[in-house]
Amino acid sequence: MLKKVFLFGFLLLISNLFAQHTVKGTMKPVKAEYTWLILYKLNGVNQKFITNGNIKEGKFTVEIPKGSPTGMYRLLYDNTNNKFLDFIFNNEDVVVEFHPDYPSQLVKYDTSDENIAFQNYIDKVSVLQNRLDSLQVEYFKTKDVSHEKKLSKLYKTDLKVLKTEQASFETKTEGKLANHFIVANKRFYSDYLIKDTHKYLQTIKSHYFDYVNFDDAVLKKSSLLIDRVMDFVFYLNTSNDPKTLTKLRKEGVVTALSKIKNESLKKDVIESLLYTFAQQENIKMVNYILQNHFNKLPVALQDLEFKAMIKDMIKTTIGNKAPEITWQEKGKTKHLYGLKGKKYYLVVFWSSTCSHCLKEMPLLHKYLEDKKDIQVVAVALENKQSKIGWIDEKYYYENFIHVLALSSDNDSVYRSKFVSDYGVNATPSFYLMDENKIIISKPYDVKEVKEVYAKLHKKEAKTEKKVLKK
C-alpha cells in the first residue's frame, strides 16, 4: 500500500511539472490602446518568444506550453515605449492585476505562491528602504545637533526592522525561485547615518554588489544581473563635469566586470553597455569598451556582427566626420568631402513620396535661400516608380545639390549604402556639418535647423566681439 501511495504521489508530481499553465491578467485602469501582448522567457539579455495573445477590455489569458522551463518571464504589451510585466514561473498558474503605466510598482498577484511571496517582499521592504533613504537625505541637510540625534535614533530603529524583515523573507522563501531574487535585492545600509555626501556615495558604491551572486544560475537566466550592472554604471557613477563623468564611467565598468567570472555573462554585460553607450552617442565610452573589454573576450565569444552594428551606430555621432557620399553629376563623380567654400553643410535624406518631406523641404529652401554660408545636399531615397516624381520636385529647390539614392528593389526604397552609413530610419533626416564635414548637430526638423543655425551665428558674433576687444 505504501508503494502505491508513493507511486501515486510521484506520478502526481511529474504530471504537475509537465501540465499546461496559464497567465491571466487584468490591467487597471483599462487602456484602449493596449490590444495585444507577447510572452517571452528571459535568459539574461536574450528573450525567447513563447506565445502571444490579445488584450480585451484590459483582460488577457495566455498559456505557457507544457514542459516550459522555470524562471523569469516577460509580458510585453507596449513595444514602442517598452512597457512590460516580469513575473516568476515555477510550474503554477499566475493571476495578476497591475497598472499598465506602472507595472513594477502597482501590481497584485492573486494566484502564484512564488510571485505573491516576492511581491509581498517588494511591497514591505521598499517602504522601509525609502524611509531609511529619506532619513539619510534629511541628515545631510540638517545643521541642528538635537535633530541629528533624533534622526540617528529613528534610523537605527528602522534599520533593525528592515534587517529583521529581510531575514524573515529569506527564511520563508527557502527552496523557492523567489528566494534568489529576494537575496539579490537586499541593499547595504551603514550602521549609522553619514554626514559627508562623498563618503556616503563611496560607501554605497563599495558595497553595491555585496548581495549579488553572479554565479547564481537562476539570476543568470533573468534580467536582474544586467540591470544591477547598468544601474551601477549609469546611476552611481555620474557627474556634471564631462571629463569626470567619463572617468567615473570607466571606473564603474571596471568594477562591475571585475565581479563577473563567467565569460559568457561578461560578454552579455559588455554588449549591453556598448549598446547603451552607442544609443547615447558616447563615442569615447564605446571605443574604450571595445578596445579594453570587448576585444579581450575569448575569440569565440566576440560577436563581430554585433561589433559592426555598434560601429555603424556611432558613425554619425556628433563630433565624428560624416560618412562619405558620392554621386554622378554631368558624367563626373562628385564627393561630399570634395565640397569647398562653405562654413556649413546640411545633408538631408528625403523622398518625393514622403508627405512630411513635401511640407518640410519648401520651408527649408525658403529659410536658407539668403544664407550664403551653408550648402544643402539633398539625398533622395527613391525607387524606379517614384524617380519621376523626384525629377519634377527637385526643381523647386534649385540651390540644393541633389543626389539620387535609387533602390533596385521597388518594395524597399531605403536599401542604400547612404542609408546604412547614416543610420537613417525616417524621412526627412538632417545632418548639419562644419566645413570639415564634422557632424555638429542632427536637427529633428526645419524648426530645429533654424534654431541650431541661429545659435551658431550668435556664437560666432560673440567670438568676433572678443577678438575685436583684444
Description:
The chain is of the alpha+beta class. It has three domains: 2-111, Sandwich (Immunoglobulin-like), CATH 2.60.40; 223-314, no CATH class; 326-462, 3-Layer(aba) Sandwich (Glutaredoxin). 45% of the residues lie in helices and 20% in strands. The chain has 15 helices and 15 strands. Strands 13-12-11-14-15 form a five-stranded mixed sheet, with helices on one face. The chain is globular, with a radius of gyration of 29 Å. The N and C termini lie far apart (105 Å). The model is unreliable at 8-17 and 410-414 (pLDDT under 50).
Give a short overview:
The protein is an alpha+beta fold and 470 residues long. Helix content is 45%, strand content 20%.
Radius of gyration: 29 Å
Query: What name does the CATH topology of the largest domain carry?
Result: Glutaredoxin
- Beta-strand percent range: 15-25%
Distance between the termini: 105 Å
What would CATH call the architecture of the largest domain?
Answer: 3-Layer(aba) Sandwich
H/E element sequence: HEEEEEEEEHHHHHHHHHHEEEHEHEHEEH
CATH class annotation of the largest domain: Alpha Beta
Low-confidence stretches: 8-17, 410-414
- Class per helix and strand makeup: alpha+beta
